[in-house]
Design brief:
The complex is a heterodimer of chains A (496) and B (162). Chain A is mainly α and 496 residues long. In chain A, 42% of the residues lie in helices and 2% in strands. Chain A has helices at residues 5-31, 35-50, 54-62, 107-110, 113-116, 119-122, 131-135, 170-181, 223-232, 234-237, 250-262, 275-283, 292-299, 301-304, 326-330, 333-342, 361-373, 379-383, 395-405, 407-410, 425-430, 433-442, 462-474, and strands at 70-72, 77-79, 311-313, 318-320. Classes of the chains: A mainly alpha (496), B alpha+beta (162).
Chain lengths: 496, 162
């Protein structure tokens, strides 16, 4: 009869042979076929080819096939890149294929690999021992390897960009120029200055892809590919985004992307910072006033354009006034300064005083003066009839007039609709009676605000305008009962 | 059926290997081999392929930067590099007693912590230091610069010929 234990013996033999096979295969793969080992074997051949003098032979003799690692605790770097990039500091390795070639430029002379590692500049997964993992473009690694053309962005972690050789950071400098030209600061804050409609960009370069809307991006998902696509078509990438299309070419989008990646607030030990970076940080504590023309370009242009024509903004669903048109001449300087400093609550115009938009008081004064002095309107026309004395009016009669002529756009109680909110205390404090009277009389050219007193048309009489102003003034004191008027409706901004 | 068990086994006349026992034997051997290989793999685990900490290896410059008879102190890295007629050598400036950084004096080195004194070549002159200051291994990198390995000691008197 058959021995039943025979089956178990066969099973033990087979299973242990299979396990042994797997173990041996793993051992061979681990110890003989790893990518870095094959690379180093190839490199040893290259060393042997180049060992023509005593030093070359010495290098060949000392060469050992081993996992190489640079560990820099101060920068949090554990980089094994040099396991395959074995020749990066060998000046003879100029005519060999990657990954054996000499590191280009003189960068390693100032940044020894042993002191800086690799990932502080190139990003990527330093501890990886093969190229796919080191590049780390798939999930679960926050900062994948930067493409060569964008690596210059990381120089700014430790350097003041203006003190670096121009050709080395050309892309970032071009991005900085475009940032100003496209008036990104109108909506985005950077270094404490800028609008509040979009997110602040101080740490944009350290954002990971998980913080971005990737649904409309084709893989591979990297932050730079997202930025490039986003600069070309913001709303196409982020549905519902309020961001204005900056209308840039592919190469301009790349430059802006490089600049975005360079905005990084990494906590880097002082001993690694270039002295000019420390000086730059110190200078930033006491900003110098900028010329008004530049300020206008940086912080007003995106919404107001040249400012000579008002226009309907279809994203905001309201008119954007022509701030260098007749208004700039009619309005007092104090009105303009207050509007710039305090913003226009209830609209997308943010406050720009030093605690909000970050402009210095003298900069706001210079901006107001700039608007007035360069206004496109002739002062004579704009101020015509605007100086009539305003006496005490009847607020009750004014309310009737308001409901008849104004409430359609400004809201029944002046809380604003398509037209600005009039009941807001900031507006009422900033606007004096003469300005209000002049605006009602002459309207706001290039907006929907019509002139209510034109020669040859049935409009409001002077007395009626006085009544209207009295009513507007009465809006300044909030009615008892409900709490004070809402400071500012919740902004729908926040989309990138 | 006649069976191998009929013959009484002894040391001098081992039982003949039957098919059945050959199967048992090879199953056992392959099982042990598999276990042994797995164990070898496991036993390798405690020894890392690379050290987790930073490698204390410093590029100090080209040999021309060290003129004959001169001494260069690397205060942060804690060693001095000198050159004499026989070549270049490096001496650690970390006291062998409790690891304080020693100061350069006219007669050699002095430890501020417990008063150990060392001669120019690292020999102990006084104090609690148990060993002379170690001489460090020097090699040359591919770009021609000298590399000092702070963790690798060489016998005193070892010069790197240049």
């Amino acid at each position: 009869m058959k021995d039943p234990s025979r089956l178990y013996r066969w099973m033990l033999l087979l299973t242990s042979l299979v396990s042994l096979g797997f173990l041996l295969a793993a051992a061979v793969r681990e110890n003989l076929l790893a990518e870095w080992q094959q690379r180093q074997r190839t490199y040893r051949k290259l060393l042997a080819e180049k060992a023509t003098d005593a030093r070359g032979r010495e290098l060949l003799r000392n060469f050992r096939i081993e996992l190489r690692q640079v560990s820099v605790p101060a920068l949090g770097a554990v980089d094994r890149c040099v396991s395959c990039h074995v020749g990066i500091d060998d000046p003879r390795m100029t005519d060999v294929p990657q990954p054996y070639r000499l590191h280009p430029g003189e960068i390693l002379e100032h940044h020894p690999v042993d002191r800086f590692g690799c990932t502080i500049c190139h990003q990527g997964q330093g501890a990886a021992t093969n190229f796919h993992d080191a590049k780390a473009e798939d999930a679960y690694w926050e900062y994948p390897l930067l493409p060569p053309e964008l690596t210059q962005a990381t120089c700014l972690s430790c350097h003041d960009v203006t003190r670096l050789p121009r050709q080395d950071v050309a892309l970032v400098l071009e991005g900085m120029r475009l940032y100003e030209e496209k008036s990104c600061g109108s909506c985005h804050k950077l270094h404490g200055r800028g609008g509040a409609l979009g997110p602040a960009l101080d740490n944009e370069g350290m954002k990971t892809k998980h913080q971005l809307v990737l649904a409309n991006l084709k893989p591979p998902y990297t932050t730079w590919r997202w930025h490039q696509a986003h600069f070309r078509d913001p709303a196409g990438l982020v549905p519902g985004s309020q961001m204005k299309n900056p209308t840039v070419t592919e190469s301009e989008a790349l430059a802006l992307t490089a600049y975005m990646l360079s905005l990084r607030q990494r906590d880097i030990p002082e001993s690694y910072l270039a002295p000019d970076k420390i000086a730059q940080k110190f200078r930033a504590l006491s900003p110098q006033p900028q010329p008004a023309e530049r300020l206008y370009r940086m912080y007003c242009f995106a919404c107001h354009g040249e400012g000579t024509y008002g226009r309907w903004e279809k994203v905001f669903l309201r008119f954007i006034p022509a701030i260098r048109g007749p208004l700039a001449v009619t309005a007092t300087r104090r009105y303009l300064e207050t509007q710039i400093a305090q913003g226009r609550p209830g609209t997308q115009m943010p406050p720009w005083h030093s605690q909000a938009g970050g402009l210095l008081p003298e900069e706001i004064a210079a901006l107001a003066e700039y608007l007035r002095s360069t206004a496109a309107a002739s002062p004579a026309r704009a101020t015509a009839g605007g100086t009539a004395a305003v006496g005490r009016g009847d607020a009750a009669r004014g309310q009737v007039l308001f409901l008849r002529s104004c409430a359609g756009c400004h809201g029944v109680s002046g809380t604003g609709g398509v037209a600005p909110e009039l009941a807001h205390p900031v507006f009422l404090q900033a606007a004096d009676d003469a300005f209000l009277a002049s605006t009602i009389r002459n309207g706001r050219p290039q907006t929907a605000m019509p002139a209510f007193q034109r020669p040859g048309s049935a409009g409001l009489s002077d007395a009626e305008i006085v009544d209207l102003i009295a009513f507007l003034r009465s809006l300044a004191t909030p009615p008892p009962g409900p709490t004070a008027p809402t400071e500012e409706p919740s902004r729908s901004g926040g989309n990138p | 059926m006649p069976d191998a068990n009929d013959v009484k086994p002894s040391r001098l006349a081992p039982p003949p290997v039957t098919r059945r026992s050959f199967l048992s034997l090879s199953a056992l051997v392959s099982f042990l081999a598999a276990m042994g290989t797995a164990l070898a793999g496991v036993l390798r685990l405690p020894k890392p392929t690379v050290e987790p900490g930073p490698v204390r290896r410093y590029k100090v410059g080209h040999p021309e930067q060290f003129p004959l008879g001169a001494e260069t102190l690397f205060a942060e890295e804690n060693f001095v590099v000198r050159r004499d007629a026989a070549g270049i050598y490096a001496i650690a400036t970390t006291c062998t007693h409790l690891g304080c950084a020693v100061a350069r004096t006219s007669e050699g080195f002095a430890c501020p912590c417990h008063g150990s004194k060392f001669a120019d070549n690292g020999r102990v002159l006084a104090g609690p230091a148990p060993r002379p200051l170690p001489w460090l291994e020097i090699s040359r990198a591919a770009d021609g610069q000298l590399v000092v390995y702070v963790d690798r000691e060489v016998p005193p008197g070892t010069h790197f010929p240049v």
